[in-house]
Amino acid sequence: xxxxxxxxxxxxxxxxxxxxxxxxxxxxxxxxxxxxxxxxxxxxxxxxxxxxxxxxxxxxxxxxxxxxxxxxxxxxxxxxxxxxxxxxxxxxxxxxxxxxxxxxxxxxxxxxxxxxxxxxxxxxxxxxxxxxxxxxxxxxxxxxxxxxxxxxxxxxxxxxxxxxxxxxxxxxxxxxxxxxxxxxxxxxxxxxxxxxxxxxxxxxxxxxxxxxxxxxxxxxxxxxxxxxxxxxxxxxxxxxxxxxxxxxxxxxxxxxxxxxxxxxxxxxxxxxxxxxxxxxxxxxxxxxxxxxxxxxxxxxxxxxxxxxxxxxxxxxxxxxxxxxxxxxxxxxxxxxxxxxxxxxxxxxxxxxxxxxxxxxxxxxxxxxxxxxxxxxxxxxxxxxxxx
Length: 387
Known about the structure:
Number of helices: 13
Shape: elongated
Oligomer: single chain
Structural class: mainly alpha
Order of helices and strands: HHHHHHHHHHHHH
Helix content: 55-70%
Strand content: under 5%
Number of strands: 0
Radius of gyration: 30 Å
């Protein structure tokens, strides 16, 4: 190793925004971030259920109105011929006359986008918060491991033996008092080993001490990181991404994490290697996930939008249905892209959002169909049109 590891105090944990605070409150009750996201998604879905039901009723009414207006629209097209602009203006007058609301066709997409941004900002806040908290715990476990490894390499702990009297390190064991004592221990008994010109010089022993910390830190990381089902670290993507962010990702930031300054690069790299070697993921201790969430997000988002498409097409002017189809193909692809690039936590949200949308669609559609029928809404008395 040969490079002296600088001492590092804890990096300040960034404050959560209000969405992140809600997530934290649910987590305190549940104890799993993965299931917290599932429950939070369900709560959001239930809260918006009245809006969802209203929108479905409006969409159904529009579908009936559009079906009744189609013969009149056909006559408008015939009357205006190649004058597409004039025909469209006349159709808009017709739709306004019979109370057809074009807004209902846009509402589902708008609600989806709003809540996606809502969750995106909340999970970004919490991901940054979680990464800093996790790294601070890893640093504490690393400092504990330095003391253990030094003892194993024959360093006399002396008055510092109490630092490891509690046995294996657990979250919360490393108090401010212990950190202060550790820094004194490191300065007196470990750092001089790396000074090749000093009286205590022994770079081989120093390197052995550093190397000996990796199994301890790796075991701690594997036991205490926030995994979920097959995903090793829920704050990393369910892809080929490493279980722990690289130093560049941690300090410079990425799509999922705000850049975090203050980590010592040498120390970070040692911890990063420890996690990769002893608490890694799949494919040779590399991958954090198995690409299951991206596949599920694409399939379920397509099914969800396809179910909506059947109703939406019935409410739209036939001339506009082509653009609607493009949106329904584009959205699932966009969701897959986000899940590939973002954290597994957002992937869980997207998958759950699609699942709950499908379930509510299957439950609410028969109810809405029973309430509204062609007989109950007869806005067009005669299928005729006169200019």
